[in-house]
TrEMBL record:
SUPFAM superfamilies: Thioredoxin-like. Transmembrane segments: none annotated. InterPro entries: Thioredoxin-like_fold, Thioredoxin-like_sf, Thioredoxin_domain. This is DsbA family protein.
Length: 223
């Protein structure tokens, strides 16, 4: 999903307002909003070291690929249905690429999806991410906040997470605030202003056909 604003603008949009507690939905209370006071977001020092990087592939792979993606981005969903599967088969599973997935939060629903995807830890993260993208058109258009939260809980339950655990994850305001700070920290440093975007061995790469993406990786492997 192309984002014409800067990362700072996106972060400020997320930061406007305050965390709010919501009305109950059919399966429990809504998750906290990612909206945090803009002054607090800019001034408070949030310890982002608690956020776990979601990684696939060999630790000593010669090429590192970082993907920045939003769960509500249609272009990201398309990449995961096509390019990512080829990338995994060609390079990740063969030990040539260490792949890191970092979430981008342009809206609260993307943050909620991230909190569900991370709820069961790294072991289930990529499987849940696959479910999120496959059903994106359903849950992201389910209606208002209550309906979208319920659809995200359904995905979590399909992955084997029980309702109590899901409600605890979605209601963790500290985690939500930390994830937003973590996103802003990395995306600002890497100048991410659209999704999906990639870093290949530290060089920023925009979304492109897989054949071109593959050629860039092969060039890195040849160095």
């Amino acid at each position: 999903m192309s984002r014409m604003g800067t990362v700072i603008c996106a972060a400020v949009a997320i930061a406007a307002g305050a965390y709010w507690l919501s009305l109950p939905s059919s399966t429990g209370s809504l998750p906290a909003s990612p909206l945090i006071g803009s002054a607090d977001a800019q001034q408070a020092e949030v310890d982002t070291s608690t956020i776990v990087e979601m990684v696939q592939g060999a630790e000593d792979a010669p090429v590192e690929v970082i993907e920045y993606a939003s769960y509500t981005c249609p272009h990201c969903a398309r990449f995961h249905e096509e390019g990512y599967k080829q990338l995994k088969a060609d390079f990740i599973d063969t030990g040539k690429v260490r792949f890191i997935y970092r979430e981008v939060y342009f809206d609260r629903y993307g943050l909620w999806a991230s909190m569900v995807a991370r709820c069961a830890g790294p072991e289930k993260f990529f499987g849940i991410t696959d479910l999120m993208f496959k059903s994106q058109s359903e849950w992201a258009r389910a209606g208002g906040p209550a309906e979208i939260a319920d659809e995200l809980r359904k995905i979590g339950r399909v992955a084997g997470i029980d309702n109590d655990k899901l409600d605890a994850c979605l209601g963790d305001a500290t985690m939500a605030q930390t994830l937003v700070a973590w996103y802003q920290e990395h995306a600002t440093r890497d100048e991410i202003n659209s999704t999906p975007s990639f870093m290949i061995n530290g060089k920023k790469v925009e979304n492109q056909p897989y054949a071109d993406f593959k050629a860039l990786i092969e060039a890195e492997l040849a160095n």
